[in-house]
Amino acid sequence: MSRLVILSNRVADLRKTSQSGGLAVGLADALRQRGGVWFGWDGETLQTQPREATVEQVGNVRMISAAMTVEDYMNYYVGYANSVLWPLFHYRLDLVDFHAPYFDAYQRVNANFAGLVAPYLQDDDLIWVHDYHFIPMANCLRRLGCRQRMGFFLHIPFPPPDLLAASPNHRYLVEALLDYDVLGFQTTADTINFRHYLEEWGVGEVLDERTIRYKGRTIAIDRYPIGIDVETFRDMARNAPDDVRIDSARREKLGRKQIIGVDRLDYSKGLPDRFQAFGKLLAQHPELEKQVTFLQVAPPTREDVNAYSDIRDELEGLTGSINGRFSDFNWTPLRYIHRPVPRETLAALFRASHVGLVTPLRDGMNLVAKEFVAAQDDEDPGVLVLSQFAGAAEDMTEALIVNPYDTDTMAEAIHQALMMPLDERKARHKALLDHILHQDTQRWLATFLNDLETAGGHTNPPPDS
Ligand code: GDG
């Protein structure tokens, strides 16, 4: 079995993965099984570019991480990755903030990181690159003479060609993706968008739905819907910490139902529209007074990007106006937590909730949708309200599917979820649970790695020839 090399923006601590999300655990398991390397940014910024990475051996896995300069952090991480690619790939052209130095830094950091990891690679390694931070990584490594099989998985959506074309570097990005041997997307819609781009812009040749020819090389593309470790999350949800038990018992005594949302505070997650829908629900259904509370957990992320402080201000305003209008001395309808909550507490809170709101304006997959379903009690499950624009909606069709821009209909869907009879809740939940059990982390890992193992790799000529 070939060694595995993972390159991702950040590296999880292999000794503490039980505290991280399922993705880190799954990747760590795959690395331990095969042995290999995990490389990423260490989260530090320095005045000058370090010449070497930090290397730590944990069992049969080498953890390699490196710092970047303050300038690269601003232009590459805050700039090109999170102020150009993230909004562009989430269909938010209004938020794209393109500057030429951002793109230079994007190429420079990828080239630097490729140079730092290359000495640790072996000829037969499988190299698996993750996400939009590292699109040019295969190209940078190939320029250094690396001939290994290389795969890329995009965790976020791939936009339609017309949107992508708004970026001055669209052709560069697509050609950089074609330097891999296997290209993985979250959904069928993403793979279709990618193939449409190739056809519309005359890049390469689409041989069939899963195969592309480009400069004499063969590239396999497919969807690999990411999943969670369902059993581990279910167990976590069953073992509620005391404070969650006490909170649930109190709510039960008062006959109150809980609606929950859990998202990084990101404009792609549709939080203002969700808050407005909740406000409309209370306005249109006065009988719900003191009968329902909405708990939104939204820890901060990427605070150096301006668009993120704007959304924070907006949510604080909405929370204030909804609570000011509807609260009573013994009822706060909306609780908004702008801090991270421990994973065990989240799992138990999902189980203690009657409705899960997952209403992004655009999302690659959305793991919260799967976690909410996994956490439910099979005998008395809660209802998932899911945006049609989350990748998860492609398969999780038994959720109440909503248009997150349409706050009136969203309010009615929340009402329907709160009132749904037990039989219907059980039937929907069973179908959803079957989906997430079928598409779990292990399947995602196994299918991607299997395709990478059998991909062109060594037989593909180098991209520059
Ligand atoms: C990207 C794509 C794709 C959230 N708040 C807390 C917390 N979380 C955890 C959730 C979940 C994870 O973070 C978020 O995952 P999502 O999938 O929902 O979203 P992104 O972070 O945007 O992830 C996405 C994913 O990559 C995987 O490919 O699905 O589409 O955008 O696990 O539970 N965890 C803890 N405290 C919090 O306050 N402990």
Give a nutshell description of this structure.
The protein is an alpha/beta fold and 465 residues long. The protein contains 16 helices and 16 strands.
- Average residue pLDDT: 94
Helix content: 40-55%
Low-confidence stretches: none
Strand order of the biggest β-sheet: 3-4-2-1-5-6-7-10-9-8
* Overall strand count: 16
Q: Structural class, from secondary structure content?
A: alpha/beta
Hey, roughly how much beta strand do the residues contain? 15-25%
Question: Roughly how many Å is the radius of gyration?
Answer: 23 Å
Largest sheet: 10 strands, mixed
N-to-C terminal Cα separation, in Å? 29 Å
The small-molecule ligands in this entry are: GDP-alpha-D-glucose
Q: What sort of overall outline do the alpha carbons produce when their principal axes are compared?
A: globular
Pfam family, one: Glyco_transf_20
Family: Belongs to the glycosyltransferase 20 family.
Keywords: Glycosyltransferase, Transferase
Organism: Neoaquamicrobium sediminum
Characterise the protein shown here.
The strands form 2 sheets. The chain has a 10-stranded mixed beta sheet with strand order 3-4-2-1-5-6-7-10-9-8, with helices on both faces. It is globular, with a radius of gyration of 23 Å. Strand 8 and strand 9 form a beta hairpin. With 465 residues, the chain is α/β, with parallel strands linked by helices. Helix 10 packs parallel to helix 11. Helix content is 43%, strand content 19%. GDP-alpha-D-glucose (GDG) is lined by residues 21, 23, 155-156, 226, 262, 264, 297, 299, 340-343, 346, 363-368, 371.
